[in-house]
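ugh ok fine here u go
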Amino acid sequence: MEVIITENYESMSKLAASLIRQQLLSRPNSVLGLATGSTPVGTYKELVRMHREEGLDFSQVVTFNLDEYLGLPPSHPQSYRYFMDENLFKHINVPPGNIHVPYGHAESVVEFCAWYEEQIKAAGGIDIQILGIGGDGHIAFNEPGSSLGSRTRLKTLTEETIKDNARFFKDEAEVPRFAITMGVGTIMEAKRIILIANGKAKAAIIAEAIEGPITAQVSASVLQMHREVVVILDAAAGSKLKRADYYRWVYEQKKRLVPQMIGRM
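structure:
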């Protein structure tokens, strides 16, 4: 696991986007795993800028999103499909047929989840998976206690997650109680993973996930077992890491001596 502590949200977002850019330049038909929420918005804005100003091409890219609320249609302003359309898909040249977001109105959730897993396999697996982290350490909607080998499935959201996401709805009562989500096992099969986090509110759980024990109670902690993970933080999110000085030293050495290896362990 490579941990990079950047100065602020903007630098965090630009670095994450630059790693995705490197991937697309080396493999234009890459499969991207995408996340929603406030954290990746800056990364998506930078990718849109790269597309418009630098010609970054998404015409062969295939995407798979982590999750979607059960019961929300794609047109709902708080659905994750709507979020992705507004923040990324409408602004780049990814073919609509290459976009995959869990469908919150699936007639059979069990059959849909099995189909989603098969689509990921048929695409050759995910090359880079973008992740955020919840206040309780969850990745995607893999709440505390989720199996570390879990697959795409229906998940009941915790009260903490519902409260965290209530800011996006008019009222907490409107927040769905269930979501379709990639499992921890599914996420861990991605070839590379980029986890981004910002803000002081994430500092304690980031320290627990990166430097604490691997446990199903903090699903992000399993990333310690992945062969190629880069965690990109702003200074506030990295403020409780015991080895913060070491992480900064490593990053500075790579920038100076082997910049092409940043994000490559």
